[in-house]
Amino acid sequence: MKITKIESSVLLAPNYDSEIASSAQEDIVVKIHTDAGIVGIGETDTNSWATKAYIHSPSTHNMSISLEHLLLGEDPLETEALWEKMYVSTAMTGRRGLGICAIGALDIALWDLKGKALGKPVWKMLSDIHQPEVRPYASLLPTGRTLEEVTSSLIQKVLRAKDLGFSAAKLEILINGPYSQAGLQEKDSEIVKIVEKCRDAAGSEMVLMLDVAYSWNDWKTALHTLEALAPFGLYFVETPLRSDDLDGYASLADNVSTRLAAGEWLQTRYEFQDLIDRGHIDIAQPDIGRVGGITEAKRVADYAVTRNRLIIPHCWKSGIGIAAAVHLAAASPNVPYIEFLPSELSESPIRRELLRTEFKLNRGIITLPSEPGLGIELNEGALEKYKGD
Ligand SMILES: [Mg+2]
Questions:
Q1: What's the CA-to-centroid distance between 198 and ligand 1, angstroms?
Q2: 313 CA distance to ligand 1 centroid (A)?
Q3: 170 and which of 209, 352, 362, 380 could share a cystine (Cβ 3.0–4.6 Å)?
């Protein structure tokens, strides 16, 4: 079997709002075609237009080869060899950042293709050891442009998530810092008040996590709020500090009992090794597309096992990324949850309509898929309807 064509589709939600922190409003979907008629599907979470240009740009010298040209004519079943080839041949431009995100989309598509060719779900090809089920947490981004609107929207979403059967939910409280909702700059004490209200709404049984999206510039300011949040029993606090402040993460992690989670923007096992060993974080959050695909995400998960850390994959795109996270979690012993943006609670029509079939919750859990590959089916109509380039 040979790869015959690489196709990339950029999607944009017509109702997108550039003042909110939701990358689910755009997408790049890649398809890898073969001479056997089998097609693999992948996506990644970064600038979709730039990624498409990068994948299809020409090769001009041997340290910056075109990903498209590199894959054409290759055997798609040689997943790890192709990862290595893509990484080495694009290293000058792409050994971090968008270049790895692009490899991630293609690698997910290669795993989907391989599973379809061999008649196996991806998780069965990743490991002999597998988990009985996968537990998603509902990732909740409120709407609204004022503190009051954001608070009441988030409480409503907590209640909806509970109704949908989720046993865990993450509160996206983005009311100050560089990525705040609609430019809000509220006091840190307001974060604590919103968490308290959400805990009251959720009840004591529901597992709650908190994402503050890089709110603080120094670890002692973060510590002050994390100590005030202690009574609400948060499972983790996500990205309290900037991505590159590894020493700040280490100091904070060493001084709080709440788990710290980070890593949604990082690329490759190398950055996760630094985050874990120098940053002392408790939970690493690779996004499967951004970290370099299923191949690299599994390497990160395996490394975290050796360092006794948990993995909770980031996912804020579509059912394609969720499927990739489900397969990783099924094949890894240290993934207690996966991030799950419920389509019922998403404002993005891409999230709601991109797939014809996707994984459903059954009493708060996802049972392991038995279909070959990722086990999902694209809604081709959505690719046309939300075409963004
Ligand atoms: Mg986040």
A1: 18
A2: 10
A3: 209
Ligand 1 centroid – CA 347 distance (Å) = 17
| Same domain as 93, residue 160 | no
Distance 238 CA to ligand 1 centre (A): 6
pLDDT tens, position by position, 108-159:
999 999 999 999 999 999 999 899 999 999 999 999 999 999 999 999 999 9
Single-letter amino acid, residue 138: A
Distance 148 CA to ligand 1 centre (A): 22
Cα–ligand 1 centroid distance for 55 (angstroms): 26
Read off the pLDDT of residues 186-233 as tens digits, 9 standing for 90 and up: 999 999 999 999 999 999 999 999 999 999 999 999 999 999 999 999
Work out whether strand 136-140 and strand 338-340 pair parallel, antiparallel, or are unpaired.
parallel
Same domain, 91 and 157: no
CA–CA dist 272, 287 (Å, integer): 12
Q: Are residues 294 and 269 in the same domain?
A: yes
Lookup: tokens for 6: 């690489």
Domain match, 305 and 241 both: yes
- Tell how far the Cα of 178 is from the centroid of ligand 1, in angstroms: 13
